[in-house]
Write a structure and sequence with these properties.
38% helix, binds adenosine-5'-triphosphate, Ribosomal Protein S5, domain 2, 21 strands, Rossmann fold, Heat Shock Protein 90, 17 helices, single chain
């Protein structure tokens, strides 16, 4: 039997386009050809299950990829369903080809290759991206003649009698000059691992040019048992009830090459109204400022599609590591289509809901563990709240705040605790070092404040205020709470005025307010309070790249403690001008220092003053 045929009337332009197109990721052919081979095996298995065939020859089911660098070929062999002559003509030359033609007509004008999510649809013909000639050797499970198909990338193909004696198909690619890199056993193996690591049939990669090392004299050599490059039954395809913690952890480290244990995970398993399986892992952060580089691998029926597709997976989840396998997502469509697709939105809503449910259940059932994980997961949860309204609504009562006593609290519990001293006000620490003096004052007075010192927190604070209407977040140095002041202490206004005038004349800072307060603490003579609003405004302007250098400093108030001897002496004693100047500057600098770093100039003056003070001590 030998026969020639024309591929299609419009085919002249197809091959050059296939060859050029998707040049950047032409390794896709690996996925297309191997997934066809797996499909052929699954189809045959199905026939066996249905009792349609009793052919048990040629087992076990497997796909073999043989690379022969010397001959320049890659052969993908399967022992699946095979094809008859009619099927080759129908599926390969008519349907598949018209599929490829349709596909290219549709997308060749779109220069943006990312337009098509998974590039599904190019199918068998993607092999012509890397091969000049492609051959098919196939024998159908229905028996009959083995078929050989051959096409050299022109407009015709040849059909003749094939050589296969067992059921299945060999696809032989004669790799072209420009694609020789794929003939390397290691390159090809790693591409197969990338695209086919969870395909449902064992896949073996064989180096045809590798010679077995001869056994040494007197040595009996054990034959090497080949191992598949893939995991045909990945953990996420199993039922959650069948998986152990150890298996989840092992799957994590193998899949993500991360040898740190994940904090916890969510096994997704949905059949209706869409199919979705997967596992999402929460990785552990090594320090509080680290942002993990997450990775969500998207699969379609165990065939790898791509990493981190934000059109399908809510963006904030990309901070996690995980696998999502959803056969229902339409992948041969543009990204902008996916973005606006209601069905895809439902999938992403489902995943978001599952994540929130898991976190809430941890809070309710394993609070201790949830608290232990909080520092690692908090940037993720907060980012999620900023990005997804629904997630924020669900999580609102389960967001933890770390207090200055190193305990964890919810917003509700915090507000309940402070309702007598600072109702609806949350004092927070944004910088542990710079605000240490305020923290110790709070602690001395039994007051509570929370740490919000992650870069994400400034945005999160505004969001939390929006969600919790009456609540105000105040940085710990922005206000003097009544709890820090002495009860019912009347301020001597004449003294306050006198000191205000003195500091005004000496410091010459128009914007600086001076206030006398009767603080409980007798160790702090002066402190600086920075207005929350004006500080936030400046921070925001900085964030948007506006020049804040020449702007007036944030509204600040210098608090002088009426109960500190330095202040009373300064107010009451008749001091010479130089001493007054020295003490006022110093009190201001001391207040400033516990709030921010001094400018170079201020630091210079401060050090000089210190020296002078030491000299006066020595000269006493
Ligand atoms: N190894 C194989 N064994 C048996 N049939 C095959 C094999 N490879 C391809 N075929 C047949 O050729 C058809 C066309 O394959 P092609 O890869 O072009 O498209 P597809 O697999 O149907 O869809 P997709 O575009 O998603 O890949 C397949 O549907 C199948 O019937």
């Amino acid at each position: 039997m030998s026969k020639q045929g024309n591929l299609s009337i419009h085919s002249e332009n197809i091959f050059p386009i296939i060859k050029k197109w998707l040049y950047s990721d032409h390794d896709i052919f690996v996925r297309e050809i191997i997934s066809n081979a797996c499909d052929a095996i699954l189809k045959f298995k199905k026939l066996c299950d249905m009792g349609e065939t009793t052919d048990t020859l040629n087992l076990p089911f497997e796909v073999k990829v043989t690379v022969n660098e010397k001959e320049g070929t890659i052969t993908v062999s399967d022992n699946g369903i095979g094809m008859t002559e009619e099927e080759v003509e129908k599926y390969i030359t008519q349907i598949a080809f018209s599929g490829a033609e349709d596909f290219l007509n549709k997308y060749q004008d779109k220069m943006d290759k990312d337009q098509i999510i998974g590039h599904f649809g190019l199918g068998f013909y993607s092999s012509f991206m890397v091969a000049d000639t492609v051959e098919i050797d196939t024998l159908s499970y229905t028996g009959g003649e083995a078929i050989h198909w051959n096409c050299d990338g022109g407009t015709t193909y040849e059909l003749s009698e094939g050589k296969r004696t067992t059921r299945g198909t060999d696809i032989i690619l004669h790799v072209n000059e420009e694609s020789k890199e794929f003939l390397s056993y290691y390159t090809l193996s790693s591409i197969i691992e990338k695209y086919c690591n969870f395909m449902p049939v064992p896949i073996y990669v064989i180096d045809a040019n590798k010679e077995e090392e001869p056994a040494q004299e007197g040595e009996t050599k054990e034959p090497t048992v080949p191992t598949p490059v893939n995991d045909p039954v990945p953990l996420y395809t199993k039922k959650p009830s069948e998986c152990t913690d150890e298996e989840y952890k092992a799957f994590y480290s193998k899949t993500f090459m991360d040898y740190n244990e994940p904090l916890f995970w969510i096994h997704l398993d949905m059949d209706y109204p869409f199919n979705l399986k997967g596992i999402l892992y929460f990785p552990k952060l090594h320090n509080e400022y680290e942002m993990v580089e997450g990775k969500i691998k998207l699969y379609n029926n165990q065939v790898f599609v791509a990493d981190n597709i934000k059109e399908v997976i809510p963006e904030f989840l990309l901070l996690l590591k995980g696998i999502i396998d959803c056969p229902d997502i339409p992948l041969n469509v543009s990204r902008s289509f996916l973005q606006n697709d209601g069905f895809v939105k439902k999938i992403s809503d489902y995943i978001t809901k599952k994540v929130a449910d898991k976190l809430i259940s941890l809070y309710k059932k394993e609070l201790e563990h949830y608290e232990a994980c909080w520092d690692s997961i908090s940037p993720f949860v907060k980012y999620g709240c900023l990005r997804e309204e629904k997630f924020a609504d669900k999580m609102n009562d389960y967001i933890l705040y770390k207090t200055i006593d190193d305990t964890y609290t919810t917003l509700k519990d915090y507000l309940e605790k402070v309702k007598d001293t600072n109702e609806n006000k949350v004092f927070y620490v944004s910088d542990k070092e710079k605000q240490a003096q305020y923290v110790s004052m709070f602690k001395e007075n039994g007051m509570s404040a929370v740490y919000l010192n992650h870069p994400i927190d400034s945005s999160f604070i505004s969001h939390a205020e929006m969600k919790n209407k009456d609540v105000h977040f105040m940085r710990i140095d922005s206000d003097i709470s009544s709890a820090l002041k002495q009860d019912n202490a009347a301020i001597d206004t004449a003294k306050e005025e006198k000191l205000g005038k003195l500091f005004g004349e000496i410091l010459k800072q128009d914007k600086l307010k001076v206030k006398l307060e009767s603080l409980k603490s007798t160790t702090v003579p002066s402190m600086l309070l920075i207005s929350e609003e004006s500080r936030r405004m400046q921070e925001m302007m900085k964030l948007y790249g506006m020049d804040t250098a020449n702007m007036a400093p944030s509204e600040a108030t210098l608090i002088l403690n009426e109960n500190h001897p330095l202040i009373t002496t300064l107010a009451d004693k008749d001091l010479d001008a130089h001493t007054k100047d020295l003490v006022c500057h110093h009190l201001y600098d001391l207040a400033l220092i516990s709030n921010q770093t001094l400018s170079a100039e201020a630091m210079q003056a401060f050090l000089q003053r210190n020296n002078e003070l030491l000299m006066t001590l020595l000269n006493k």
